[in-house]
Amino acid sequence: MAASLKTTATRIEFENPFLLGSGPPGTNAKVIAKSFDLGWGGVVGKTISLDASKVVNTAPRYGKLKATDHPDTVVGFENIELISDRPYSVWLEEFKQLKKQYPKKVLVASVMEEYRKDAWQQIIREVQATGVDGFELNLSCPHGLPERKMGMAMGEDPSICEEVVGWVKEVAKIPVWAKMTPNVGDPKVPAKAAIKAGADGISTINTILSIIGVDLRTLKPMPTVEGYAVPGGYSGQAVRPIALRHVMEIARAIPGVPISGMGGIDTGFDAAQFILLGAHTVQVCTGAMLQGYEVITKLKEELLKVMVDHKFETLEEMRGKSLPFFSTHADLVERQRAAKAAKTGANRDAETWKGEIKKETDSLTGH
Ligand SMILES: Cc1cc2nc3c(=O)[nH]c(=O)nc-3n(C[C@H](O)[C@H](O)[C@H](O)COP(=O)(O)O)c2cc1C
């Protein structure tokens, strides 16, 4: 049997595990339709709310971190973009149309509301009636919205997280994913609260609070809007190690929980690592913004290559395969001792650090 990218998570069937993450890539029906045509396994729409008139964006609102030695390479991306400023009624119509046109494609609606039960239940009921396949609750946007007690203001507080997911689950008939913030010390705590309240799955990570830099000509922090700035959300390949750690922590703490993993996925090889750490599906936002929607073809080929190389026929066989290899630092030390490495004295500081720090750092780097 050939390797297959098909998978099922939270009762939803995906032709492949790649979804476009909430953000500019899924910002209206036209681009969502284009993504379906190009072969994305699903799309999470840009986050919507009941009253788009309260959403006012700035320009500029993005900043790029370039590699020091390769100024053409973007390693990190910051944004201070808010949720969708397009009218709610237009979104409802577009969801309906998209599901009529693409009944078999997976469309997940990302929603966010103020801290009011009636508002959350209204948006869930009305969006659900359009026929979307699932919800992603944005409990994690780190900038702008927390000033209105929305987004990350909810996701960083486990008791609010539990309460809001509970409100949603009272009326949702379709699967609900809670999208978590990485801007917390222990990501397991709010994720467990969301699952306790009935969330069907966890999406992680949203962006990381950041300052992309200070302009040394003007001495102003960036992105600069009329001379001022706010910390924004960091994404792109630089955040991948942090995202992998969050997925791992949650997968180990809540075994079998369906996770939609994201943060810095640019290639199918990146996606494979999320799946090996327990993700059921993966999402790509910045990677699609920087490489274009067509990147989906390459993403699928690369993930399939990993599966074929390791003789995995299904994603289920591959999922979580790297999780058992996490341990404690004390255990690593014990294993090395048992392997007699310590016997040579090679791991002692006095033997290691003799002044050629670059070479010595390399010798302690595992890849
Ligand atoms: C410009 C931009 C806008 C975003 N807007 C949203 C949003 O509306 N809702 C949301 O849940 N996440 C939003 N995100 C976060 C992404 O969905 C994703 O969680 C994060 O960027 C990490 O993945 P990535 O590195 O693939 O972008 C946005 C990200 C970017 C870069």
Plain-language structure description:
The chain is an alpha/beta fold. The protein folds into two domains: 7-325, TIM Barrel (Alpha-Beta Barrel); 329-363, no CATH class. It has 14 helices and 16 strands. The strands form four sheets. The protein has an eight-stranded parallel beta barrel, surrounded by eight helices. It has a four-stranded antiparallel beta sheet with strand order 5-6-14-11, with no helix packed on it. A two-stranded antiparallel ribbon has the order 1-2. Helix 1 links the parallel strand 3 and strand 4. Helix 3 packs across helix 5 (158-171) and helix 5 (158-171) packs parallel to helix 6 (188-196). The longest helix is centred in the last third of the chain and has 15 residues, at 295-309. It is globular and about 70 Å long. The two termini are 33 Å apart. The mean pLDDT is 96.
Q: Kindly report the average pLDDT value.
A: 96
Compute the number of structural domains. 2
Q: Could you name the CATH homologous superfamily of the largest domain?
A: Aldolase class I
Distance between the termini: 33 Å
What would CATH call the architecture of the largest domain? Alpha-Beta Barrel
Beta-strand level of the residues, as a percent range?
15-25%
Number of strands: 16
Biggest pleated sheet: 8 strands, parallel, barrel
Give helix and strand order, one letter per element, not per position: EEEHEEEHEHEHHEHEEEEEHEHEHHHHHH
Backbone shape: globular
Radius of gyration from the CA trace?
A: 22 Å
Highest CATH level, the class of the largest domain: Alpha Beta
Low-confidence stretches: none
Lateral arrangement of strands in the main beta sheet: 3-4-7-8-9-10-15-16
Q: Give a list of the ligands.
A: flavin mononucleotide
How many helices? The count is 14
Helicity level = 25-40%
CATH topology of the largest domain: TIM Barrel
The secondary-structure class comes to alpha/beta
